[in-house]
Amino acid sequence: MSNFNKNIPYNDLPLLPPKSNLETTNILRKTIKASRALANLNGAIINLPNPQLFLDTIHLQEAKASSEIENIITTNDELYQSVVADKKFKNPAAKEVISYKNALWNGLKQLDARPSITTNLCIDIMRRIKENTSSVRTTSGTTLSNTNGEVIYTPPSGEDVIREKLSNFEKFINEDDSLDPLIKMALMHYQFEAIHPFSDGNGRTGRILLLLYLKMEKLLDVPAIYLSEYIIQNKAEYYKRLRFVTEKEDWESWVLYMLDMIEITAQNGLFRLKAILVLMQKMSYEIKSELPKIYTKNLIEIIFKLPYTKRQNLIDEGFGTPKTVGNYLMALENKGFLKSVKVGKEKLYLNHRLMEILERNKDDETQHYV
Asked: Which residue from 7, 25, 101, 241 lies 20 to 30 Å from 356 (Cα-Cα)?
């Protein structure tokens, strides 16, 4: 058993890989199912005419869910209006979600330049999430408590100790090929959260690393998946399973939880993608029939890139003068395709049917698209 005591810094946190058997029959079976679901989603994304089209929306939805786990709550309306409108919102939650999305986007860009997950990359992600210049924790006294305020875990303490654990973490991710990548992903996520290297932003940094890792391992060419949505829906279980690794060295139930997350999230992602594509085809047909003079494939893509759009988006795409594009948007609103909303002095146009798909919960989704 581990010599773990929740009240003292866990400087004895074992290095990766663990000594436990990580290839039990249950784990291997579940790995196959999770890999298959991920491959199906990946195939569907690669075959899209424009795989980048929905990325902004998907990354913002992931950012919103990941921030919600930390009790940073914003609505889809507040979030997308903040992104599209020039008026910078006073809503601090929307601002934090957008910082998270930027951190994810920058992480993906860095991964393209250098396909490895490093301590420096982790620090960079955290700094972008928190919009500060802090680094690895140097002060002692960090503890993690439950909702009743009881200490449940004291992470390793001392910069040297933390950096040594991170160095092992980095080496394990980039050099150890002895395990299936999805099993590795579960181990790296536990380890990062257990090291808890920063004063703040560890959970969100850890969840961004999951998406970067899937891309790095070429399991998802375009990281179009909302992993955090699953954690929100199974939050108590997530923290319980993490704790059981620390307290009981129960790796199996943790790895199974993470594989479940991948399988279910990939399936939901595929349902949602299909729903958006069906809607896109339907609206293309309807707009072409009812407004043939303004219909173009490019116009459809603009109103599906994010749920909200505005005149400037159409001007930037070469659709004409402010007056011309204003007439286009008004025509789309008059026919019920878009709904206008005043945000500050700007008028935004909402693709309300697209927003409905984003707001739909997974149970509805399964009924509609299985």
From this structure: 101
210 near 265, Cβ under 8 Å? no
Other beta carbons within 10 Å of 214:
22
Looking at domain 25-271, does it have CATH number 1.10.3290.10? yes
| pLDDT reading at 369 higher than 80 | no
**DSSP per residue, 230-258:** HHHHTHHHHHHHHHHHHHH--HHHHHHHH
Per-residue model confidence as pLDDT tens digits over 160-197: 999 999 999 999 999 999 999 999 999 999 999 999 99
3-state secondary structure of 340: strand
Predicted confidence at residue 364, as pLDDT, reads 45
CATH number of this structure's domain 277-369, picked from the four choices 1.10.1370.40, 3.30.470.30, 1.10.10.10, 1.10.10.60:
1.10.10.10
Length of the chain: 370
Mean pLDDT (the chain) is 90
- What is the CA 147 to chain-centroid distance, rounded? 25
8 Å CB contact between 56 and 104: no
Tell me the pairing of strands 144-145 and 346-350.
unpaired
Q: Residue 309 has what DSSP assignment?
A: E
| Domain map (residue ranges) of the chain | 25-271, 277-369
Q: What is the dihedral of CA 264, 268, 273, 275, to 10 degrees?
A: 150
- Strand ranges inside 42-190, DSSP E: 144-145, 151-153
